[in-house]
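Chapter summary example.
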Amino acid sequence: MKKQTTKKLAAEHAKPLAESRLSEAETAEKKNKIYSAWSPRPSAVSAVRKDVVVIGLGNILLSDEGVGVHIVRQLSNQSAEGETSPLGGQDKFPNTDFIEAGAAGMNLLHLIANRKKAVIIDCAKMGEKPGTIRRFTAEEVVSVKHLTHFSLHEVDILQVLNLSKQLGECPAEVVFFGIEPESLGPGQKLSNTLSAKIDSYIAAVCEELH
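The structure predicted for these 210 residues follows.
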């Protein structure tokens, strides 16, 4: 009788433990799906890591906030299809990865790891006329600190760069292109001001890559 009671108690304790472990597994699976949904587009990342990476940051659902993503998308299309660039000629950038990163957060650490050069494009509050584009080095960004995505989901982009340096994985050259927005309201299209200048933005990035 005592042995049966002990087995019964053990079984009763084992059931909630098993349910708890199942619940933890289901929760982990849900988290993985969420993280996957926020990861950069897989098609934009090549199987072989290239020396140079161009990363577009921003939310394309908030008009000019997504200008970095729009620029990288067009550059990627030009590279893949061999379209004529604003600079003239066939611009394929064989040594460059183009990544639409959205709000990359800590994933930016992986995207720039062990590259020779990283070019990051983003909407930037610089107090300039809407549509203005400015180029910054990492050192200049430290003193200016105006890029809207300096807090990528609570992750400071400069902290990401510092961590990358500590790991010995930071690119030798990191360049930022900031573009002053005109509209940050809901909408998937750029404002007329930025849309009219998109070719000049692409030309500036192309010049940086040549």
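To summarize the output: The helical segments are 2-37, 67-81, 107-112, 138-144, 157-166, 192-195, 198-209.
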